[in-house]
Structures are given as C-alpha cells and as structure tokens.
Amino acid sequence: MFLLTLFLSTFLQLSVTLHTFFFTKTSIEYSTKDKKYQISISLYADDLDKALIAEGLPALHLHEKAETATANEIVHKYISQHLIIKHDGKSLPMTWIGMEKGEEPQVLWCYLDAPAPKFKKGQIWNTLLLPASESQKNIVTFVPQSNNSQYLLFQQDQMTLNINP
To answer: Quick check: pTM over 0.70?
Structure first.
C-alpha cells in the first residue's frame, strides 16, 4: 500500500509539472464598446520561466508563489517584445491589464489591450516562448472590426503573419 501511494503521488506530481505540448493561445478581439483590441494570452508558467532565462532575465516561478509587482513588469516587457500587432506598418501600443493563474496547473493568463484603428494592411509578429523550445507553437485567434475571425499559427519558421481588416 505504501509503494502504491508513493507511486501515485509521484506520478500525479509529474503529470502536473510536465507537459508534452508547447503552445500558447492568444485571443485578439475587437471590442465595439471600448473601440480597442482585448488581448488574452494563455501560456505555461514553466515555459515562460525558460524563455525569460534564455533572455538573461530571472525565472519568476509564478506557478509556485504569489504574483509580485516586479513579475507583472517583467512579463509585460517580455510580451511587449514578443507579440507585436502592426496596422499599416505602425506598431500598436499595448496596455498591460494584469495576469492571473488559470484553472489548470501552471497555466497563466495575461491580459492587455491596444487601440484598434481602421487599417488596410496588418501584421502580427508572435515569438512568445519560441526561443525556449523548438516545438513551440503559438495559436492566435484574431477578430478585427469586421468580425471575420482569423486563426493563425506561429512557429519557428513562421513568426510573422498578415491579418485582414
């Protein structure tokens, strides 16, 4: 019985701390009420730590302890450098709203918003966590003012994609 308990507790702990898929999910959706893009990003905290370390920044261990003001600043800076939305060649400034732990173990949700001017030509550049893992994929759902959803997949060989108004 002791061995079974030990095995199960070890297995459960490993299943919580390890995952086999490396991806982020991002939603960029136009809000008619606020006339802005509402941006939500779901990612694994341990993958974020690996990416931060790869850039010479400290690991935050957000899945292990409470969020701090410094953590918000570091995550906001990282996201701002790795997720860029351009309209007609101009980068949109993103405002940090905050982050929270998700219902799943180690999942973090980050929230931002950005102005949403009308545009003719647009691009999204997404390199979130890409340097930390060769198998990293970033899935983006983009819903512009026209309400025509676009589903985009970013990976090592495709970091920039065009978007339609």
So the answer is: yes
